Amino acid sequence: MANCSTDVCSYKRAWALDTRIRNYIHDPYKIFGDYIKEGQTALDLGCGPGFFSLAMAEMVGEKGRVISVDIQEEMLQMLRDKSERAGLKSRIIPHKSQPDKIGISEMVDFALAFYMVHEVPDKKNFLSEVVSYLKPDGKLLIVEPKFHVSKPDFDSTLKVAQSAGLKQISEPKVLFSRAALLIKA
């Protein structure tokens, strides 16, 4: 069985991804509020139960949308339920991806890969696919947990990102995390 430290974080542990403490530690508005504007299309990769998707949906406003991607239907169902209760269902497009392919058709202004790139078996294909979805001025924010991803491992991911056509433009500060904001090279 997968857990949140190996393989893919199981839907059975979703409660750990969506707590008040996490909202304080990983406040979406502080982490990526400057990168998402009203009317944009955002992509939440490995969205889980929707912790970040709901905040992104508020940020993009009524004319924007959030494509929330996960490989587990159970996570997407949790997101659907939460977005319905929050009145944000019309802004969020849940998308079940395959383990080796995201498979969306939209172009996005902002993509978030929060605590999930280390779970991806083929980072080069994954990041190349993400690049193909970014609009010319689109941004990708990769955030990985310091307790699980070492500095050399994170640097290796950034090298793969570079080979996939991305360029790092900043290193945002995210508590307990390693982070990089990237654009198309």
From TrEMBL:
Which keywords belong to this entry?
Methyltransferase, S-adenosyl-L-methionine, Transferase
Ranges for domain Methyltransferase: 37-146
Query: Has UniProt tagged this entry with the keyword S-adenosyl-L-methionine?
Result: yes
Q: Which GO terms describe its biological process?
A: methylation
As recorded in UniProt, its EC number(s) are 2.1.1.137
Top EC class for this record: transferase
What are the recorded GO MF terms, alphabetically? arsenite methyltransferase activity
Query: Can you state which reaction this protein catalyses?
Result: arsenic triglutathione + 2 [thioredoxin]-dithiol + 2 S-adenosyl-L-methionine + H2O = dimethylarsinous acid + 2 [thioredoxin]-disulfide + 3 glutathione + 2 S-adenosyl-L-homocysteine + 2 H(+); arsenic triglutathione + [thioredoxin]-dithiol + S-adenosyl-L-methionine + 2 H2O = methylarsonous acid + [thioredoxin]-disulfide + 3 glutathione + S-adenosyl-L-homocysteine + H(+); arsenic triglutathione + 3 [thioredoxin]-dithiol + 3 S-adenosyl-L-methionine = trimethylarsine + 3 [thioredoxin]-disulfide + 3 glutathione + 3 S-adenosyl-L-homocysteine + 3 H(+)
Q: Which family does it belong to?
A: Belongs to the methyltransferase superfamily. Arsenite methyltransferase family.
Name-wise, this protein is: Arsenite methyltransferase
